[in-house]
Write a structure and sequence with these properties.
two-stranded antiparallel sheet; mainly alpha; 25 helices
């Protein structure tokens, strides 16, 4: 993690002196282009990847509003719909644009996702460099962000366009905030607020931006005035200090925007859900504590990555919770004791705070955690790591070449692991087979592997995985539907009826229509015209427009 090449204009307590580990200014462009080239080489394979059989159908291929391309009707729908239990109109519009230009070919959307990731890498480097004056450390943070395996899911999964797109506006807002801080004016503040709104319209994950801006005031901008002195290390001489009260007050409009978006998000999550997830708050809190520790573990040792880590529910062991809590408290204590190194405080609070909307305190979905949730929060950990290691190396006067060599070695290893992780997404059956290898009793993965095999004509193998899923979770609607279709197609009509009914007991209206039609046909073939008519009529009531 090489240090900075650009010396701060003013040496202050928080900004360590640039010593032996410097990056020549003329090398910044070359190293930046090299980083983009390596990232492109690692991810270029996604151009040949298919749509994933998880959410890509609802977001693109089987969504008539999106697949028809961009038009006023689609824009109106995007602005008003809570489809897929989300309100993110900008994301819907971006998918519609994909269909406008690429029809339903997956290569184009994959390329757009990769392009957004590359832009985010450049923006992250630029925002950090301009705010701190350290080019080398900023470049290393951007490199970790570009090549870390946990970010694969956000880049290669078309339905996760919302993550890369929201990050784009988050970083633009963070960069614009420094511009505003240099000369606080209403017009500049409006630009920050607009970028924030656009980010929320892509994904509500960026809702923590106002809190991140307060951290940014503390370090590196140094806007927070503690007593007679500033707190931070801004390299900008013309950023005026403010009291904590002033800094919080100026962000009230942003917090109002947060409240509005939180309302829309909660309302969207309540639309169309057939059931609430049966986890009490103590269980959700225990999982959140363990998940925080697991995220840190996966940052340093990114193995066993999968698109679905099932929530353990009541099976979380007290020892796991205790160990995770001790770890989190220990890191917090370390950060507190090193309070002069303000980047540690900012990085740790960034990670903890930015993860709050996805940590599971308000449970949404079946997962205990998800790789895609780390895309934004991990920036805080990367800042802690790069600045901390560089300061540690400078304090011990290590050989000049040591840190760059170690940095390159680490990035090379991450690039190899990331390339391998991205390859799993090249085939749905391979993705879910890998998921079963790295997770335990994953009924969700069994079901989706069954879907992948069924879609490629392997009906008997698919049925085996559906049955395995039901052996773990008998109420899984996807597996019940899979078995129902299998029994129906193989002529076992009476056996299919029970599985269709189990599916209907758990499914929402968007998925019930075809199952009702199928049941009508089954009963017609069984000679029960009355039941067939009832199911056809029920299907007609919820027929898609």
């Amino acid at each position: 993690m090489v240090s900075a090449s650009v010396q701060p204009t003013r040496q202050v307590q928080l900004q360590p002196k640039a010593g032996a580990f410097t990056l020549p200014g003329k090398s910044i462009l070359a190293l930046g282009l090299l980083l983009l080239g390596v990232t492109l080489a690692v991810y270029l394979q996604v151009h040949r990847h298919p749509f994933a059989n998880l959410d890509d159908n609802g977001y693109v291929t089987k969504n008539s509003h999106i697949s028809s391309g961009l038009n006023w009707t689609t824009v109106e729908w995007a602005l008003t719909t809570y489809y897929a239990n989300n309100w993110h109109p900008l994301t819907w519009i971006s998918h519609a644009l994909d269909c406008q230009f690429f029809q339903l070919a997956p290569a184009g959307p994959h390329d757009v996702n990769l392009a957004l990731h590359l832009i985010n890498v450049v923006l992250l480097f630029w925002v950090l460099w301009k705010a701190t004056g350290y080019a080398g450390r900023s470049l290393m943070v951007a490199a970790l962000f570009a090549l870390h395996p946990l970010n694969v899911e956000s880049v290669v999964w078309i339905a996760e366009r919302k993550t890369t797109l929201s990050m784009l506006f988050f970083l633009l807002a963070l960069g614009a905030y420094r511009w505003y801080a240099q000369n606080p004016r209403m017009g500049r503040y409006a630009v920050v607020a607009l970028l924030f709104v656009l980010g929320l319209m892509a994904k509500p994950q960026v809702i923590t931006l106002p809190c991140v801006l307060l951290l940014w005031d503390y370090w590196p901008l140094g806007r927070l005035r503690l007593g007679a002195q500033q707190s931070g290390s801004s390299r900008e001489r013309n950023i005026p200090p403010r009291s904590l009260y002033q800094l919080v007050s100026e962000k009230v409009p942003l917090f109002v925007i947060c409240l509005i978006d939180a309302y829309l998000t909660i309302r969207a999550q309540r639309v169309g859900r057939p059931q609430s997830w049966p986890f009490t708050f103590p269980v959700r809190l225990e999982n959140a504590i363990v998940a925080y520790a697991r995220y840190v573990q996966k940052m340093f040792w990114p193995s066993g990555l999968a698109p679905m880590y099932l929530h353990p529910g009541n099976s979380i062991r007290p020892g796991q919770v205790f160990a995770a809590l001790v770890f989190l408290l220990a890191v917090t204590g370390l950060v507190t004791s090193c309070w002069r190194l303000r980047y540690l405080t900012v990085g740790w609070l960034w990670f903890l705070g930015a993860m709050v909307p996805m940590i599971g305190l308000m449970q949404v979905g079946r997962q205990s955690m998800a790789d895609r949730y780390a895309y934004l929060p991990f920036l805080g950990l990367f800042i802690m790591l790069c600045w901390g290691v560089a300061d540690w190396a400078e304090a011990r006067h290590l050989p000049t070449a040591l840190l760059p060599v170690v940095s390159i070695l680490v990035l090379a290893i991450l690039a190899v692991v990331t390339y391998r992780q991205a390859r799993y997404w090249a085939d749905n059956a391979m993705l879910w087979s890998h998921t079963l290898q790295v997770t335990h009793r994953n009924w969700f993965a069994e079901s989706y592997l069954g879907d992948a095999l069924r879609d490629t004509g392997h009906q008997n193998e698919a049925a085996q995985h559906y049955f395995r899923s039901l052996a773990i979770n008998p109420t899984n609607p996807d597996a019940n539907l899979g078995v129902a279709l299998y029994e129906h197609q193989t002529g076992n009509l009476r056996e299919s009826v029970d599985y269709y009914k189990r599916f209907l007991a758990e499914a929402d209206d968007d998925r019930r229509y075809q199952a009702l039609i199928n049941l009508g046909h089954v009963y017609r073939r069984l000679g029960d015209a009355e039941l067939a008519r009832q199911y056809f009529e029920e299907a007609a009531k919820i027929a898609p427009k």
